[in-house]
Amino acid sequence: MRNRRSKSNPIESCRRRNGLVNGSPGRALNVMERRSHFSKTLIVATLATLAGAGGCHAINSFRPTPNNVPVVFETAPDAQRLVQAINANTAEVRQLSCDIHIRMDGVPPLSGSLIVEKPRRMRLMAGLIGISEMGVDVGSNDDEFWIWNKAAVAGQVPAIYFAKHAEFAQSALRQMIPFEPQWIIDALGLMSLPTDGSIQGPLTRADGRYELRLETPTSLGLVTKILVVDPKTGLVQQQSIYDSQLKLIAYANAIQHQYFEAYHASLPRRIEIVAFGPDRSRNAITVDLGGHKINQLYGDPERQWLMPQPADAQRVDLAKAAAIPTQAP
Asked: What is the pTM of this model?
């Protein structure tokens, strides 16, 4: 498909209604009254394992110069070359571990670690001043995910929220938390796009970057993902996800990329995520990443990806819950 300048984007008006102008974060939507501390923690943890984690103030610029990232394209690529470049970027990355710092409005900053193994394994452990016993343990393995809220506040007790992927996909709560576990891994750049020609684009935006559009079937129906790609490096700088009604679910900015020559991979040092709740409340988060280690996970893999069984925490199966809990049972 020949590269062409976008004159009429089929979801441009939808993007503007949802606070995105020209594919970039624009004026924030009105923020409804914040939920309880637990609800925020659940949102952070759910985003971390079902598609995100962290927090920030209003997101403005997200296009700083990448750190030593090589130029891939000297001329405008077609869709096939662009998809090949995106897939090749992290093709040699099977595992990733890094230090993280999480910020979100109304929640104290958290520090900790994140490990990821393709295609869907992830473990995030973070707490106040880096003490995991005062924070959360969030994980996802091949069969299930969990959210262990260790730091109880007044009126709450420590609890671990969990569900099997297959059961949660069919649950009532799934409609209230419209995320897929793969999305956070994609936000880190560890994605693999289809090469069957189903991707639409590239369209050239007013700012010179490219847009790719693809539709993906999920348990919520068909979702549309819009990728914003740097025209020189081929790096995905933004991903926006829309439901079957073209309502914006979430978007993620990947910035401050660092090039790892030994693996021919460029990975972000910051991820900015904005997710919208069922009531259209806006939850903005920031995750700063450092100390990247690629394909160097050590330890017992059975323990790394095993859901913890804390004796002093109540267990809540989210696949069987009818609504998002606002406090521990």
From this structure: 0.77
